[in-house]
C-alpha cells in the first residue's frame, strides 16, 4: 500500500459536464480530445498575450477533467475560468484536497507524469500533515522542473520559459487556445528568450519572488519557488536563454550557482 501525505500547498478543481473536455481543450496548452492518457500531466492556462496564468497538473476521465494547481491560485482560477464557460455544459467543483505518495502508486491513473516515481490524488480524506514529507515532495517538484507559479509571478512568462515544452505541457498541434498564436510564433519563427533553470545558494536564504543577479549586480533571472534547508537553498527561476549551468549567481548577499532542475536532488 502507498502512504499518502496531504499537500496543503496544492488544491484541486474538477470540470464536470458534457463539455468539460471540449472546454479544457479550448482553454489549456495541452490536448483533451481523447488522445490524452488518464495519468496526471503538466498543462497551463494562458492569457491572450501567451503569458501563463497558472501551471497545472491535469487529467481527463469520462465527462470530467481534473486539475491541480497551487492553493494560492485558487481564487484566480475559480473567479476567471467560469467566465469562459458560458454556453457550455460544464461546472467547476472546487476546492478539493490533494495528497501525494513518494512511491509509484498502484493505480496507474494516479501516476505523476513529470515524475512517475510518485503518485498524486484528489478529493479524499487526508492524514495529518507531515512537514518533512511535504518538504521532500516540494524538493522533488523542483527537481522535476514543475514550475508552480505564485500569484506574484502569474502572467509574466511564456510557457516555453517555464519548461513546459520539454515536459509535455505544451502542444503545437491541438489548435487554438488563449495566447496560442504568440506561443506558436516563438516556436516556429523565433527562439525563446528565456528558459527554466535550477539554482543552489549556500545557506538559508529567503528568496521567494526575488531575483538572481550576476557578480556585477545585473539581473539574470526571476525566482519562481525555493526550498530552504539547513545548508543550502534550492529553487527554480526563469533566466535568459544564454545563462548556462555552472554560472555564478548572487541573491541578496549570498552566492550560488545555476544548474539544470534535475541536478537539484
Automatic annotation (TrEMBL):
Keywords: Transit peptide. One of its GO terms (biological process) is iron-sulfur cluster assembly. InterPro entries: TrmE/GcvT-like, YgfZ/GCV_T_CS, YgfZ/GcvT. Signal peptide: none annotated. NCBIfam families: ygfZ_signature. This is Folate-binding protein YgfZ. It comes from Wenzhouxiangella limi.
